[in-house]
Amino acid sequence: MDHNKAERIGGLGGRVRALRAARGLKQQDLASAEASTSYISLIESGKRAPSPAVLAGIAEKLGTSPDYLLTGREEQRAEEARLKLAFAEMALRNGDNGEALQAFSELLSARSDLDAAMIRRARIGQATALEKTDRLEAAISLLDELHREQGIAVGSEDWCHIAIALCRCYRNAGDVALSVDIGERAVARLDELGLETTVDHVQLGVTLMGSYSVRGDLTRAQLLGERLLRAADEQGSHAARGAVYWNAGLVASSRGMLPEAIALTERALAMMAEGDNARHIAILRMNYGILLLDVAPPRSEEALQLLTAAQEELAEVGNADELSRCELYLAKAEQSLGHLDAAASHAERALGLLGSEGRVLSADALASLADIALLRDLPVDARQHLDAAARQLHRIPPSRESAETWRRIGDLWRRHGKQDEALKSYDMALSALGMAPTRAPDPVLTDHPR
Questions:
Q1: Given this structure, which CATH class describes domain 3-72?
Q2: Model confidence over 111-164: pLDDT tens digits?
Q3: Domain extents for the chain?
Q4: Among 99, 198, 273, 329, which is 20 to 30 Å from 432 by CA?
Q5: Residue 257 DSSP SS3
Q6: HSE (CB half, 13 Å, CA atoms) of 56?
Q7: In angstroms, what CA-CA distances link 420 with 220, 425, 433?
Q8: In 3-state terms, what secondary structure has residue 230?
């Protein structure tokens, strides 16, 4: 007999026997025309599995439900668990990430009330909540376990969700190479199966596209974007098409193609606005505002309005990274308008949101404060901020993003009149992009006297 089936029968028999004894009943009290006393004995010993009709009759006499006898879960407790799971998932959608994390954790600590599908939903929800509360290591650990489970069908909604989250978490944790590897393997598995394209499949490709961009692999990102746009157009989802246009805009921006980037981002925002994902809409508004600050001349007032709206929305539904990034670009907008006090306040808020852990964003915030200090003619403050920014960058793995911040620090050192420090920062920027210093040539041996 199948081991799991035997366990289920044995568990059922034990529950029948325990409830019968607790209620002061004898085996013959459970007997009926469909089940003799000897048959009840076989059920209790785990040697027979009752038919649904017999099980329903036994449950009625014991004052319980067939579901409890089969699974050991009280129906009322199971219903409470279903409601709590739905509440946790709703809290997660509404941006109440701490509350959602607590609810998922409580559910998983009493998982006897959950069936296998509910346990998986709770674990995925817990991992998502951990990610949104910036506990990336814990989220990755849980997602790695889920990703290795054999029972999750490739191409299913759960499988796609786990692969997308794992790819995104490794990227945000700074391990872009592993993020790309996970994304490429997942896309390849979907291609091998020839499954019909869904929104989840497109989102997986979009996440990989973002990792390519962070790695500086802009050609691959663009080619994948063109493929995804065709798939999204066929799929017909506004959210899927918006996500592709969104990332295509980021790639165009990285290549310095600002008019194209603005057009793509405008289109993405129009498509996303037809949905109800407030967080995505807020991030798109932020991206749009950033682009408007980069055009010549900057459209600073318009950018400030977009970024202010994005900041208000992200305060409700975003995570610390997203909100701090928005604060940094608000600082840039205010600085471009000559509002230095407001700019400094935004940069300091960004720094406060990020905490003490080494982050590229923390270095960006410190570079912004240094920039503002130079404009205020406070060179000592500027130097302190730049030294602190460099210490932050030394604590994290090199990446294209860190290279951009090293370049910015070098430019600020140059404005400060410190050429040696500027050259060191430029060297760090090149190293972060994988360009090692040129090795000095070996001395040439010669027979000619000196």
A1: mainly alpha
A2: 766 777 888 899 999 999 998 887 889 999 999 999 998 878 888 888 999 999
A3: 3-72
A4: 329
A5: coil
A6: 3
A7: 36, 9, 20
A8: helix
